[in-house]
Design a protein that fits this description.
It is a single chain. This protein is of the alpha+beta class. The chain has one domain: Pnp Oxidase, Chain A (Roll). Helices cover 27% and strands 39% of the residues. It contains five helices and ten strands; from the N terminus they run ββαβββαββαααβββ. The strands form two sheets. Strands 3-4-5-8-7-6 form a six-stranded antiparallel β-barrel. The longest helix is centred in the first third of the chain and has 15 residues. The chain is elongated. It starts with a strand and ends with a strand. The mean pLDDT is 93. This is Pyridoxine/pyridoxamine 5'-phosphate oxidase.
Length: 210
C-alpha cells in the first residue's frame, strides 16, 4: 500500500494500483499479463497522426519498459516512423482481456538508434534481421513473391551477420500521461491517471470517473 497526493488530498493506492513509480506499476501489470495472455502480452496499439491530422493506429510489439519510457522498434521510413518524426508525439494502449486491465500512455517520442538499437537488432533471429533490410515498410508491394525474391537477394548480399539497417531502430515514448484502468462491476471501473508537464517534474495522480 502506498500513499500519494490525489489533487490536494492524500489517498492510499492499494492492490494492483499501489506504487510510487508508474513505470514499476506498468512493469508489474505486464508481468501479470505474461502469465495469462495467450499471445503477445506486450502488444500495444500505437497511435500517430499524419500531415493532415488524420489519426493512424496499428499493433506493435513493445520491447521494454524502463524508468524513462516505453520502447519499441520499427522502420524509420514506415508511415509511423515518418509521422513520429514529423510530430515528435505518439500515444499507445496495452489491453489485456485475461486481466481486464489496460494502460494508456501519451507523450513525446525520442528516436533511439545507438548502442541499444544495435544490441536489440543483433539479438533477433537472422531471418528477422534480413527481413528488416528487405521490407520497404508501408510502401506498395508488387507481390509476395517479389518480397521473397528481395529477401533472397539480401541474404546473399548481407550474409549471416548483417548490421542494423540505418533506417531501422528504436523509439522511446516519454510519457506525460499514464492511465491505469481496471474493470469494475456494473461498469464502475477504476481509473487512475498520472500526469506531469515534463520528465523532470513530479507526477500528479487523479482518479477519473469510469
Amino acid at each position: 500500500m502506498s500513499e500519494m497526493f490525489l489533487g490536494n488530498e492524500m489517498v492510499k493506492l492499494n492492490g494492483i494500483f499501489a506504487g510510487e513509480n508508474p513505470f514499476e506499476i506498468a512493469k508489474a501489470w505486464l508481468r501479470d499479463a505474461e502469465k495469462s495472455e495467450p499471445n503477445d502480452p506486450n502488444a500495444i496499439a500505437l497511435a500517430t497522426v499524419d500531415a493532415d491530422g488524420l489519426p493512424n493506429v496499428r499493433m506493435v510489439l513493445l520491447k521494454s519498459i524502463t524508468d524513462d519510457g516505453f520502447w519499441f522498434y520499427t522502420n524509420y521510413e514506415s508511415a509511423k516512423g515518418q509521422e513520429i518524426a514529423a510530430t515528435g508525439k505518439a500515444a499507445m494502449v496495452m489491453h489485456w482481456k485475461s486481466l481486464r486491465r489496460q494502460i494508456r500512455v501519451r507523450g513525446i517520442v525520442i528516436r533511439e538508434d545507438g548502442l541499444e538499437a544495435d544490441e536489440y537488432y543483433a539479438s533477433r533471429s537472422l531471418k528477422s534481421r534480413l527481413g528488416a533490410w528487405a521490407s520497404e515498410q508501408s510502401r506498395p508491394l508488387e507481390s509476395r513473391s517479389a518480397l521473397m525474391a528481395k529477401v533472397a537477394k539480401i541474404t546473399t548480399q548481407k550474409g549471416a551477420n548483417p548490421k542494423r539497417p540505418p533506417f531501422w531502430g528504436g523509439f522511446r515514448i516519454v510519457p506525460e500521461e499514464i492511465e491505469f484502468w481496471a474493470d469494475g462491476a456494473y461498469r464502475l471501473h477504476d481509473r487512475f491517471v498520472w500526469r506531469r508537464e515534463a520528465s523532470e517534474n513530479e507526477w500528479k495522480i487523479t482518479r477519473l470517473n469510469p
